[in-house]
Amino acid sequence: MADQEVDLFVIGAGSGGVRAARIAASYGARVQVAEEFRVGGTCVIRGCVPKKLLVYASRFSHEFEDAVGFGWTLPAEPTFDWPTLIAGKDKEITRLEAIYASNLERSGATIVKSRAVIEDANTVRIETTGERVKAKHILIATGGAPTMERIPGIEHVISSNEAFDLKALPQHVVVQGGGYIAVEFAAIFHGLGADVTLVYRGENILRGFDDDVRTHLRTEMETRGIKIITGVTVASVEKTEKAYKAKLSDGIELVADQVMFAIGRSPLVGGLGLEAAGVRLADNGGIAVDEYSRTSVPSIYAIGDVTNRINLTPVAIREGHALADSLFGNKPTIVDHSDVPSAVFSDPEIGCVGMTEQQARAKLDKVDIFRTVFRPLKATLSLRDSRVLMKLVVDGSNDRVVGCHIVGEGAAEMVQAVAIAVKMKATKADFDATVALHPTAAEELVTMRQPTARYSRP
């Protein structure tokens, strides 16, 4: 016999799980949420929020340099204190965690501070107490975790999780990886004063992004002083008396105060009782789900990074809300995973939405490319050697803008607005009919008149 009965039991109190729980409870459902670590999940505790705070901190070094060209004279050389930054970050995520927990409880959901394991299609066991909860519906929202390779000395390597809690700022850092987490932390450490080497096994960073974006960001990062080595991996890490020695697959040795791996994230599916319950995994390693986030077991659902669909916090939130609407709000809702905007908070940052040029050319009969690279107005006085990239991908058959890619200051903020137009299926003529806002970098989005390239499939 179960000790308790609920309508929805949520495993994982990250952004997606919390949203599903809150909305379900608002419809009158009896909801319990189990979380073994901290409420808020990856985004709030060890992901988006603390990372963006560190990104802000890292960009001040460039602002101090640029200020001189605008007439500012600093009274002394600026100094940076890592413990102050980390203490401020900790204070903010503690505040946010309290808000998440308060919102959950205020909605009527109950938080269980424990790991939970699925025993069958409608039963969950609370590990700390051994209690069993009977649930009409079970939601898995456990997210993902950093992937780490098995190499000699891997115990000396940190992931992005540990990077947020280092006791001191390392002066020499080796980062392995070429995805958004790797390039973001490379920029963070470099902006705060560290010497950074980025190591990536592929031919260029940011696989899956538009090729122009990949090339442009790499050039900008190298111009700023970040060393990027591609086509190799870290084969081993050895601890020396004062540092770490990272040996690359081509035999080169790099000496660093810290070695960090950011080579991807894997869905947290282990130890949940999935096999016993009959929940199947997809080929991508995540939990297989249908368009309503239902698993192979009709009473069990999964959302967010644990499904390995689109691993973004707003997507997990949208999936959690849709699930609660479908199950308890009498509003069956399917989440549209197309044209989801995304950002990379590198330096400079990236904002993009829709198709890359490569995707469009593979899928569409006709493709028009509008591309510009220019020196931003700010750089004319700061004399910073930096360029902005803006690119529109247009379906040449119907003039619809199917992709937008920006590299430069404020790229993410711009793309959030552009994403509305792309989602509404705006045409290039709609962009052209929009009056430019001058002087801004964003005005280039509505002033690119002639295509820089045109492609047609035979």
Care to describe what's here?
The protein has 458 residues and is α/β, with parallel strands linked by helices. The protein has 13 helices and 22 strands. It has three domains: 4-146 and 266-328, 3-Layer(bba) Sandwich (FAD/NAD(P)-binding domain), CATH 3.50.50; 154-263, FAD/NAD(P)-binding domain, CATH 3.50.50; 342-453, FAD/NAD-linked reductase, C-terminal dimerisation domain (Enolase-like, domain 1), CATH 3.30.390. The protein is 32% helix and 24% strand. The strands form five sheets. Strands 1, 2, 3, 4, 5, 6 and 16 form a seven-stranded mixed β-sheet that branches. Strands 17-18-21-20-19-22 form a six-stranded antiparallel β-sheet, sandwiched between helices. Strands 10-9-8-14 form a four-stranded parallel β-sheet, with helices on one face. Strand 20 and strand 21 form a beta hairpin. It starts with a strand and ends with a strand.
What is the strand tally? 22
Under CATH, the homologous superfamily of the largest domain reads: FAD/NAD(P)-binding domain
CATH domain class name of the largest domain:
Alpha Beta
The CATH topology of the largest domain is what?
FAD/NAD(P)-binding domain
Q: What structural category characterises the helix and strand content?
A: alpha/beta
Major sheet characteristics? 7 strands, mixed
* Tally of helical segments: 13
- On the 0 to 100 scale, the average pLDDT is 95
CATH architecture of the largest domain: 3-Layer(bba) Sandwich
Helix content: 25-40%
